[in-house]
Each structure stands twice: as structure tokens, then as C-alpha cells.
Amino acid sequence: MSLRTKRFLLRSRKSSFNFINLVTLSEERTLMLLAVVIGLSSGISAFLFKHMIDGVHHFCCESGGTGNFLSGRWYRIFFPAIGGLLGGLVIYYLAKGASGHGVAESIYALRRKGGRSKARVVIAKSIASAFTIGTGGSAGTEGPTIQIGSAVGSIICQWFKVSNTYLKTLTAAGAAAGLAAVFNAPIGAVIFAMEVLLREFTTQAFSVVVFSSVIGAVTSHILLGDNTFLPTPSFGIEHPAELGLYFLLGIVAALVSTGFIKNLLWTEEFFEKLKKIPAPLKPMIGGLLVGLMGFFVPKVLGAGYFEVTDILLPDRDLHPWGMGLLLLLIVGKIIATSLTLGSGGSGGDLLPSLFIGAMMGSLFGQVAQTIFPNIAPTGAYALVGMGLVFAVVASAPFTAIVMMFEITQDYRVVLPLMFSVTVAMIMSRQMGEIGLYGRVLLKRGVNLAGGDVHDPVMSVTAKEVMVKNVEIVGQNMTVEKLSQIIDQSHHTGFPVVNGQGELSGMVTYVEIHKAHMDKLELKNTFIEQIMRKDLPVSFPDDVLVDVVRQMQESKTDRVTVVEPDNIKRIVGLITRANIMTAYHTSFKRTD
Fold it and tell me: Global pTM?
């Protein structure tokens, strides 16, 4: 056995139990075994998540689809608000990283945290998204499933003590398995993982992702049956000149997609500025507005799967979709999705993108048919429109082409789709659009188009500025003794540890001052009684923008840095002064 393989298998460092240490496998076979385990786990997680959403939905309303969600019952206007509130509470108290765009969070974890995720993210994302989507919030299941799958992969890798080199690949493999389970499109899921998540192509990574994606799709097939994600209309190009219409459709799709992205980000920024409103109440407000919209236009509620299915059916003429209704649904879905996700609700944006694309394509097809009656049916344009909006929003043209081909199982869709996607991507780039995930991550210091942003808060990590020799105090120390230490020290706060040296809280002069004001007997009062237990913590690979955000949310001037694998073990401390020093040093270097 090679030295490299031994290092991979013995990465556990005296772990109490590690399955990999019990078997003798080559490194490649070990990776494939883990890929299978992750694919199976992600597929099962996607199955359970779907049933959670169905359970919440059936509890709230008797109908099976969102088309009759309100059915004239005015009180159901409040269902999305209730779902938003419950989801917001889950996110706020369990895992704040579970809000908003699941795909963007997965990319951020890969870029900034080495692919590491916490188990509570899986739980929080599942529950919060089930509340949001099941009660009628305008969001999709694919974003949460991708984040859940990537988190499942990360957790399994951390449990087996997999090295950082492979953790990213296996985390992306988990995301691919989740996406394959949702769309029943394992090939498209592989391309998505390589194009959007990893943004690189290596033979080893490709093999691992393929294994997980296939296992995820097979698991979904066994649990859910052999159901295609969407029914597909008869497709064809009646005349070569019809490519000109697809050229125009690509331009229209670029405009609509860009409008969707900008509206969603504007809504997100608007809710972020509402500082006086508690975080869990923001998705409730967004949900209430969505519920009001749904009372008048019920089809904008939910993920939109049933509506997309209806518009693609070959007998679509039995369900008339007028041009006015289609235009209303395009605008309404953009606003409803922006309110749901921009307010802090948990869900995905890809299924709403497919909805918007289907309605846009169908509307375009109807207009085109009034001028050219002998062209392909409107369902064909709806199908291409879905791929176009998907491609621009996710900035993933190759994924869109492969996935739509895989969904339709019809090669004839590839030619017009490739042509239109190319036009849409060129048009969107000319307008300065880099995709929804690119814009979300750019705000957090991750530039998918190239290097990281120069702003130190957006690019410098916690381990680069933290103080490593941290002064700590024991929780059984008296407040009187602590006051003496603060008087003799230049520090105004200390992390507090228990008898085992584990982090248990934080104490600053603010708590001491409050103890004085409450007239406590300081010599008989212990730090444990006055310390803050709800203190924020960061990991060494977190960027400073996240540290600053935690300081603002917790109203403190210092954050403890802990080990990713053991949040009770202190590795450093960051204060506002350390952040200011990072700014000064960075700007001095660029002068």
C-alpha cells in the first residue's frame, strides 16, 4: 500500500470508531465507496424532504396542487405567512445559514469553508423549507435538496475524517445526488456539480460525482417510482427559418431573467435594511404579501410544478392559457419568488425559474403562432424557455442544455436550445449579468468570475487576523476577581471555559457593569452567573464579513474562533480592533 493511501485511511487520528480503518482499500476505491454511501444518503434525504413538504401541504389544504390553493377561502391568505414565520424561527434559532438560496450557500461552503457543513444545517434547511414551500411560498425544492445533499456529503466525510483534498469533491457529489433525485436527471446533476459548484473538471472528481449522482437517482427511482420530472410535448422544427424565432426567444429570455435576478436581489436588500424588524418576522411579512397575491392569482403559489406540467401537456388546448394570463404569471411569479426568498424564506430558485421560462416561452410561442401559424406548437417554445431562464439565472448554460435534453429524452430539443442559450448568455453578459449565485456570492467576497474581492472584510479569513494566544477565565471565578483582572489588563472581555477547558460563554465589562447596577455581592457571584451563553463563534476559514455580521447581530465587539470539528475548543479571538488593523494593513499594501 502506498504512503499516500495510508495517510488517507489513517486520517482519523485515533478516532474512537472509523469504518475506513477497518478495511484495506485503495484510495480510489475508498472514494468510490464513500460516493456510494453519500449518494444513497442524499437520495433518501431528498425522499424524506419531499414527504415533509407534502405533509405540510396536505395539513394546510385539502387540494393536491397549488392551482386551487386558496379556493376562495380568505383565511388561507395567512398560510404562507405562518410558514414563513415558522421557517424563520427554525433558521434563527437552529442554523442561520439555512435561509435563502441553497445553491449559493453550498458554493460558499465549498469556497470558504472547505466544504464543511454542520448537521443542524440539514435539519434546519429541511424543516424551514418544508414550512415555506408546503404552505404556499413561491420557492422550489431543488435548492434545499442541493444544500441538504452537500451537507450530508460533508457530514459523512467529517465523520470518516476525510482529508480536505477530497472533502470538497465528495460534498459536491452529495449535492449532485440530491439534484439527480429531484429532477431524475443524473447526467445534468453531474454537469451542474462540475460547472456550478466545483467549477473545475478532473477525472477523479468526475468519477466520484458520477457515482453519487447515479446512486441518488436510482434511490429516488426505488422510493418514488419511475416518474419523469416533467411530461414533454411533441418537439420539432418545422422550417430552418424557425431558428430566427429561437434567436429572438434567447434575447427575450435574457431580459426576463435579468429582471428576475435584479428584482430578487433588490427585495433581499430591502428586507436587510429593515433592521428594527426581528429576523424571524421578515419571512412572515414576505409570506403574507405572497398570500395576498395568491388570493387573486393562485397559480403563483408554491414551486409551480403543476402549472408547468399543465402547460407542457400535449392536450394543452383543453386548459386554455391566454396571453394576458401568461404575462400576469410571469410578472407575478417574479414578485412572489422575490418576496419569499428575499425576505429570508428558505427554498430554491431553479423551479421558479423553470416556471417563469415556461410561461415566457409559451407566451412567445402564442405570439409567434399568430404571425406564423405553421410553426412548432407553443409547448416547444415553453420547453426551450425553461432551459433559457435556468441557464441565465444559474449561469450554467451547459447544465441547462444537458438537463433539458435528459428531461425530454428528445435529441431534437438540443439544436434550438443550444442556439437560444448561446444568444441568451451573450445578451445577458452584454448587460453585465453574472447570474444570481454570482451576485449573491460577490456580496460575500467570493468572485466566481475570477479572483476574490480586494476588500479585506470580503477576502481576509478569520485565521489571518485572530489573536491565537487567547486569555481565558474559568466560569467558577468570582466577579470580584474578574474585575481586578480587567483593571490590570488592557482587555475588556474574555472567553469563559468550564472545568474541562471547553468554551462555555463570554464575559465583558458590560456584564460586570450590569452586576454592579444590580447590586450583586461580587465576591460571592461567579462568572457563570453573569456571562453570555448565546455568544457567536466563527471558524478559521470564515471571511471577516461573516465575523462582522455576527458582531452586529449579537451586539458584541468580539467573536471567539473555534475548531470546525469541535466548537467547544478555542483557537483564537477576533475583536473590532483586529478587523480595523486588517483594513489598515491591507490599504497600506495597496498604496
Answer: 0.76
